[in-house]
């Protein structure tokens, strides 16, 4: 076990398989991610192509949790969470490599994040995207004033 700055014991990299025998491994640690691998995934996005390795390294340092999927040692999906682990969380950089899209990995990755023991009790999860609206709505997010949010409890209680 690794001890994170917030006192949480992070599991060593491998978290679980996809359960289908397709060889996908799921991770819930930023220690399972390198800036170089992320830069490779960002090149398939409109918004992340210009991110430098130094910027990505700094971003990872400031990220609360990273969620990733690997196949045959290569990272094929990623997203990250910024949170206080009590009231709010925001999801960023939801990506699936084009060669692995259409196989349910995006949904599996998001479900893994949203049902994670450290995340599932956070009452408000938000994300900002214009590209993934239908996908995220299928997961329970609603569009509200330019944002998508998953309101798990009324705002007055969160």
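^ Assign residues to that structure.
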């Amino acid at each position: 076990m690794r001890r994170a700055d917030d006192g949480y014991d992070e599991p060593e990299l491998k978290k679980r398989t996809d359960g289908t025998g397709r060889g996908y491994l799921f991770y819930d640690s930023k220690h399972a991610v390198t800036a170089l691998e992320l830069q490779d995934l960002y090149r398939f996005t409109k918004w992340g192509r210009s991110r430098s390795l130094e910027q990505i390294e700094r971003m990872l340092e400031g990220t609360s949790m990273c969620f990733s999927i690997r196949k045959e040692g290569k990272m094929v999906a990623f997203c990250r969470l910024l949170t206080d682990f009590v009231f709010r969380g925001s999801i960023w950089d939801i990506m699936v490599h084009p060669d692995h899209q259409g196989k349910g990995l995006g949904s599996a990755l998001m479900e893994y994040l949203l049902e994670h023991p450290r995340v599932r009790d956070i009452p408000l999860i938000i994300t900002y995207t214009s590209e993934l609206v239908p996908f995220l709505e299928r997961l329970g997010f609603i569009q509200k004033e330019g944002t998508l949010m998953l309101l798990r409890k009324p705002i007055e209680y969160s």
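The mean pLDDT is 85.
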